TrEMBL record:
GO terms for molecular function: FAD binding; methylenetetrahydrofolate reductase (NADH) activity. The gene is metF. This is Methylenetetrahydrofolate reductase. The lineage of its organism: Bacteria, Pseudomonadati, Pseudomonadota, Alphaproteobacteria, Hyphomicrobiales. It catalyses: (6S)-5-methyl-5,6,7,8-tetrahydrofolate + NAD(+) = (6R)-5,10-methylene-5,6,7,8-tetrahydrofolate + NADH + H(+). One of its GO terms (biological process) is methionine biosynthetic process. Its cofactor is FAD.
């Protein structure tokens, strides 16, 4: 399947990229190298995450601001409501609105006791992600609000049906798009999509793609996120712990195979968890038929 031709420009999928806010000067320089390399691919938007419990509030803001100031990219700011008062969250939203941000990725956030502990909403805070969505939409109706979706259900969720009900509540509150937790088995996504559509949810459910740069790390993420790591994937990376070059080649093949199959079955939007690295994402986008601005227009 990885040998099939790139989809024609007419069917060129749209893409978005996710970054995390850098902690150090060196990480910032790295991120800007990544942004400059990926920007010519003309993503629909680029998003910047919000550290657990709002720990990167200022860094997320300054990264978003720099994207606005120095690029023509459209930024989307992640925001969580865990451990924050409504007034604090509103202030963050209003500051974004003031500098020209028109897209928020609205999330509840992990429980402050860590993943696996029970979630307690802040007494003066938004009680759920749906509450947060509706607050953003009522303060700034022109703002786009993206939410999360979980093809394998959120670890705290009693069932996939309960999870889809939670997604429905977010859509009813005004969410305009959902991005999924990453998954490696496309069938999980398609089965989920069927159930979401059957529940009357019509917004785009954009697959979140995690190119596996580091298998051990990805496996850790997956365990915490409740995402399955198929045996075939583990086997592909077997014995490569000390061979970064081969790992990268394998990673590109795996992710390219995944997105091509999704595209072949009609998926038109892809969100990449870049982990602030450009090469794999650039290559996979290329395989999807995406070219830097100029040539794409010429085609
Ligand atoms: P929610 O929509 O709040 O749902 C979580 C689960 O709780 C539901 O599946 C459901 O079982 C239950 N639930 C909630 N509301 C209801 C309801 N009304 N009815 C029934 N059940 C309900 N975390 C960060 O800290 N910063 C980020 O920047 C960040 N970005 C993310 C981006 C994406 C695309 C994804 C998929 C996740 C991201 N997360 C981020 C992780 C997220 O914060 C955690 O997964 C968190 O535990 C849940 O928040 P949520 O908004 O995703 O889920």
């Amino acid at each position: 399947d990885t040998n099939s031709p790139a989809p024609s420009q007419a069917h060129r999928p749209s893409i978005s990229f996710e970054f995390f806010p850098p902690k150090t000067e060196e990480m910032e320089q790295n991120l800007w190298g990544v942004i400059n390399r990926l920007a010519p691919l003309a993503p629909d938007f680029v998003s910047v995450t919000y550290g657990a419990g709002g720990s990167t509030r200022e860094r997320t803001h300054s990264t978003i601001k720099r994207i606005l100031d120095e690029t023509r990219l459209v930024p989307a700011a992640h925001l969580t409501c865990v451990d924050a008062t409504r007034a604090d969250v509103d202030e963050v939203v209003d500051r974004y609105h003031e500098i020209g941000v028109r897209h928020i990725v609205a999330l509840r956030g992990d429980p402050s006791g860590g993943i696996g502990t029970s979630y307690q909403a802040h007494p003066q805070g938004y009680q759920s992600s749906a509450d947060l969505v509706s607050a953003i939409r009522s303060r700034h109706p022109e703002m786009e609000v993206t939410v999360s979706a979980y093809p394998e259900k959120h670890p705290e969720s009693a069932s996939l049906d309960a999870d889809i009900d939670a997604l429905k509540a977010k859509v009813d509150a005004g969410a305009t798009r959902a991005i999924t937790q990453f998954f490696f088995d496309n069938d999980l996504y398609f089965r989920y999509l069927d159930r979401v559509r059957a529940a009357g949810i019509a917004i785009p459910i954009v697959p979140g793609i995690l190119p596996v740069q580091n298998f051990k790390l990805a496996k850790n993420f997956a365990t915490r996120a409740g995402a399955t790591v198929p045996d075939w994937l583990a086997e592909k990376f077997e014995g490569l712990d000390d061979d970064a070059d081969t790992r990268r080649l394998v990673a590109a093949t795996v992710a390219a195979g995944q997105v091509q199959k999704l595209a072949k079955h009609g998926v038109e939007h892809f969100h990449f968890y870049t982990m602030n690295r450009a090469d794999l994402v650039f290559a996979i986008s290329h395989i999807l038929g995406i070219r830097p601005n100029g040539t794409q227009k010429a085609a």
